[in-house]
């Protein structure tokens, strides 16, 4: 029973899960019924395990289990071939042990489902990040990060806060040292006006934005208040795109106060993509964005 071991929550396995869920739903079968059928075929599984596969949260997926499900769902030859290719070697990143830092803070990351986010972020070749209230995490300074997490999570101890700060800085190092990727950061103008941690912390943060805005692969645009009302007022989001070799579609990630969720239905992804594209067109171009940030730095000292 060959098993394909890829990175937890890999883009390829996530796509397999989405397609299997669609086939099951179309067939009118419940997870319990599908699991019962597989057990009749001598395969060890249950509804919970199938749910994890559909949600892209399994580290391994057995070929014979997928084959049994495709037969049960009466998938046509073309669909079966596409899904089988997704399981093939080389369709996802090589599985690597999770860094000790992330294992050490897994209890904090788990409740927000942030481990899943980190896995997907590491695989993405393009990130389109819209932020309404804060500087994007990958662009934050350490002091800014500390004050943000302290404000957002008053329930945490100082040691736990430091742990989450370390995780965020780890993300930034991993992004800098990993495969080249594009980062399109769309930041609402109000973020520059919200003083987090005091003038000195904001000065350092804005200077960091200026420097980062000229880094290869990173584009920062400020969405001015003059843009008025728009769909982005509903809240921040990240659109992740993956290597073509994975055949995985884009996903949208949204963080709430108590958890985080990802959307992978085509209609949802299209809606958020259209929103980002529209807001991107309303934003200041990179040159005017840098001018705007410089002006805000000067105002901090007036």
Q: What does the largest sheet look like? A: 6 strands, mixed
CATH topology-level fold name of the largest domain: Endonuclease, Chain A
CA-atom Rg in angstroms: 21 Å
Largest beta sheet: strand ordering: 5-4-3-6-7-8
CATH C-level class of the largest domain: Alpha Beta
Query: What's the number of helices?
Result: 14
* H/E series: EHHHEHHHHHEHHEHHEEEEHH
N-C termini distance: 69 Å
The backbone outline, from C-alpha atoms, is elongated
Mean pLDDT, to the nearest integer, reads: 85
**Based on helices, strands and strand pairing, what is the structural class?**
alpha/beta
What count of domains describes the coordinates?
2
Strand content: 5-15%
CATH architectural name of the largest domain: 2-Layer Sandwich
Classify the helix fraction into a percent range: 40-55%
| Counted beta strands | 8
Uncertain runs: 3-9, 90-96
Quick structural gist:
Helix content is 52%, strand content 13%.
SSE layout:
Blueprint: E1 3-5, H1 11-27, H2 31-40, H3 47-54, E2 60-62, H4 63-72, H5 77-86, H6 100-104, H7 106-111, H8 114-123, E3 126-131, H9 142-152, H10 158-177, E4 182-188, H11 189-193, H12 199-212, E5 218-223, E6 237-241, E7 251-255, E8 260-263, H13 266-282, H14 286-300
Parallel strand pairs: 3-4, 4-5
Antiparallel strand pairs: 1-2, 3-6, 6-7, 7-8
